Amino acid sequence: MDIEVLEGIFDANEKIARENEALFRERGVMAMNLMASPGAGKTSLIAATLQLLKEKLEVGVIEGDIASSVDAEKLKAYDIPVVQINTGGACHLDAIMIQQALAHMDLAAIDLLIIENVGNLVCPAEFKLGEALRAMILSVAEGHDKPLKYPLMFSDSDVLVVNKTDLIGLGDFDMAELREVVTRMNPDIVIFEVSCRTGEGLGAWADWLEQRVRDFKES
Amino acid sequence: MHELGVTESIASICLRHAQSNRARRVLKVNVKLGELTGIVDHYVAFYWDMVTKDTIAQGAELNFTKVPVVSHCPDCDEDFTVVEYDLTCPRCGRADTELVSGREFLVESIEIE
């Protein structure tokens, strides 16, 4: 006997993601899911963003790592709410982990919640967390050919931050080629070029992000 | 990379529907898999036997239907198969076309006895 099922394999996660999304909306928190490979500069970009936005917005951070609280420790200096999630081996964050982490956070005191996903260019893209903004970083050191090798994250992100622009010229990274390929896969994506080391380009990124938070809160 | 978790989800969906239909055994599971998802069917199949061991789905055939990445151009009013994730319309060159398929990942049906 054939039984029609038609049930999405990510449905259980997506149901919880919708609950998180509703909670963020109710409390006026814009959540950003920040995804990238290990070493692309997720924690550096968060630190730089905190530096630029700390007088303008209340920011909270959820740090996702397979193990350790190294990244959460780095952000302690900013005196903001930080919750560390250790996935215990899982290669991505999922909506349930976020739901559990939110129990340790005072959402009423936050405008922007930055969720640093596990360093991985593949799996995090499959799991919605309830975020309003999907952001990813690609660093110059990784090469401009990554979009075609890891298409889902590039296809699905709202914004791409290209980090480590101070390394351009040391290898064969081609920014024009990267922009062309990514835009063909995802015409609506917004691209920023930054260097967290020199600070170049970070102002434009922070201004844009601040505006997104304000638009979210007004909508 | 997370194919084990995904395989567990497939098994749990399949067993829930099998039980609510009072199945004695699951013979076959039909899964629809869009080519834009990062899921590798080969690895799911690899975990399937392990995940379903000692359940009524043990030994069930896992069948994948691959769904190609297809986009729709509103200007040409035509669908086209996406090559190398390039969503540009091959006829008119419009960049922002509308993805029609390729993101599917669902248990379509099960065959039970």
> How widely separated are the two ends of chain B?
33 Å
* CATH-assigned fold name of chain A: Rossmann fold
Sum up the overall morphology of chain A in one term. Answer: globular
| Count of helix runs of chain B | 2
Q: What's the assembly state of these chains?
A: heterodimer
> What's the architecture of chain A in CATH terms?
3-Layer(aba) Sandwich
Write structural notes for this entry.
The complex is a heterodimer of chains A (219) and B (113). Chain A is α/β, with parallel strands linked by helices. Chain A has helices at residues 11-27, 42-53, 70-75, 95-102, 146-149, 151-156, 175-185, 202-218, and strands spanning 2-8, 30-35, 59-65, 82-86, 112-116, 133-139, 159-163, 190-193. A 7-stranded parallel β-sheet of chain A has the order 4-3-5-2-6-7-8, sandwiched between helices. The longest helix of chain A is centred in the N-terminal third of the chain and has 17 residues, at 11-27. The termini of chain A are far apart. The model of chain A has no long low-confidence stretch (mean pLDDT 95). Chain B has a 3-stranded mixed β-sheet with strand order 2-1-6, with helices on one face. A 3-stranded antiparallel β-sheet of chain B has the order 4-3-5, with no helix packed on it. Chain B has one domain (3-112): hypothetical protein PF0899 fold (2-Layer Sandwich), CATH 3.30.2320.80. Chain B has 2 helices and 6 strands. In chain B, strand 3 and strand 4 (78-81) form a beta hairpin. In chain B, 34% of the residues are buried. The chains are: A alpha/beta (219), B alpha+beta (113). The A-B interface holds A 1-10, 12, 90-92, 120, 122-123, 125-126, 147-148, 151-152, 154-155, 183-188 and B 1-2, 5-6, 9-10, 13-14, 17-18, 21, 23, 31, 36-39, 84-88, 95-96, 105-113. Strand 1 of chain A pairs antiparallel with strand 6 of chain B, so a sheet runs across the interface.
